[in-house]
Design goal:
nine-stranded mixed beta sheet; 15 helices; 366 residues; 9 strands
Length: 366
């Protein structure tokens, strides 16, 4: 009898520990980021200010798998005067539009800028229990933002990481004549896995893609710990304690870390459609620019090199490729002033880049 009790205890104990850890790491159930930060005694300044400056609109997925889900609250922000040329920025995995804060500060006086958090990210809703996240749905969402919410007639498309895939899916809609409501004037892509065979997927990404294990690990890991690991791997320099605190609260909103095993499935679509998307890029009549941080351990420079040589270098429409030796995956955070200058050049500003006092000189690949 004693032996049976011991065996039962060994079997039950892990489940009790998991339950305890979940209880210690409850998921936020706020309905808006405004409500979320208002409930905090001492909300981190930058993240709460980012939330306060944004707004929401309702959007529904058109996928059959999502037909039983209520319309989602989608977070977006705009900056600058509508009289200025427009830039639309699309963020990557697993972060949000907050990624662009520093570069927006460099550009907002001269451009009208719009950013959005796609479903599962940032301050947009993070549906669970079987919701299907999709690059194509994100592209349709961005199309809705442009046509119906911020109502842009023409804009520069600037994307990063997963946002590169969303941007290419949007370009596919645009190039096929699926939307004549606006003109994409320039297409700028920052570091992202735009050709996965050349990328170096991290151990953490592989873990999140592992059925069962990824779901359990991300449900139990505190957002601050996720942010600290993320900072060490991908930011140059690493985030400050204040930066970690701000980003961790964004990850914690509506249990953002817990949906990562679902949102990272965008890589499955990337693998399936990346050649078609790159062929769309090759045929595109929109001027394109790659701006790449060389110290990225995941979307390594060989990713951009491959796309440049095979899809951009000899295409009919103008294309340029810049590499920044001192920047990593989050180059818009690592070197916001320098990236902003290259963005201005890509859009058509006739400016010189004075790097006489800089130890980081970008190289234009020919």
């Amino acid at each position: 009898m004693t032996k049976q009790i011991i065996i039962a205890g060994i079997v039950i104990l892990p489940f009790l520990l998991i339950g305890l850890l979940m209880a210690m790491n409850p998921l936020d159930d706020s309905t808006s980021s405004h409500e979320y930060y208002k409930a905090m005694k001492s909300p981190p300044a930058q993240a709460s200010e980012w939330s306060e400056g944004g707004a929401y609109f309702k959007w529904s997925s058109s996928l059959t798998e999502n037909k039983n889900f209520d319309p989602l609250n989608i977070f977006y922000r705009t900056f600058g005067s509508r009289e200025n040329p427009a830039i639309l920025m699309i963020h990557g995995f697993p972060t949000s539009s907050y990624d662009f804060k520093e570069i927006i500060d460099e550009l907002k006086n001269d451009y009208f800028i719009a950013v959005i958090d796609t479903p599962g990210y940032g301050f947009s809703d993070k549906p669970k229990k079987g919701y299907k996240y999709s690059i194509f749905e994100d592209a349709n969402l961005v199309d809705t933002l442009v046509r119906n919410i911020v109502k842009l007639d023409r804009f520069t498309l600037l994307t990063h990481d997963k946002g590169d895939s969303v941007g290419l899916a949007l370009l596919q809609i645009y190039q096929s004549g699926g939307s004549s409501a606006y003109i994409i004037e320039n297409h700028i892509m920052l570091n992202g896995g735009i050709y996965l065979p050349k990328a170096q997927i991290s151990t953490g990404q592989k873990l999140m893609r592992t059925p069962g294990i990824g779901t359990l690990a991300t449900r139990l890991m505190p957002p601050k710990k996720v942010t600290e690991n993320f900072s060490k791997l991908l930011f140059i320099p690493e985030l400050t304690p204040t930066g970690i605190e701000n980003l961790a609260t964004i990850f914690a909103y509506q249990g953002g870390v817990s949906v990562m095993p679902e949102t990272i499935k965008y890589l499955d679509q990337r693998e399936e459609y990346e050649v078609k998307w790159l062929e769309t890029l090759q045929k595109s009549n929109v001027p394109a620019t790659l701006i790449w941080g060389e110290k990225d351990p995941i979307a390594v420079p060989t990713v951009a090199d491959y796309v440049w040589e095979n899809y951009l270098r000899n295409r009919k429409a103008p294309a340029k490729y810049w590499r920044i030796p001192c920047a990593g995956h989050y180059l818009q955070n690592d070197q916001p002033e320098l990236v902003a200058l290259l963005v201005r050049r890509a859009i058509g500003e006739q400016i010189e880049i004075d790097l006489s006092k800089s130890g980081c000189v970008p190289e234009q690949i020919q």
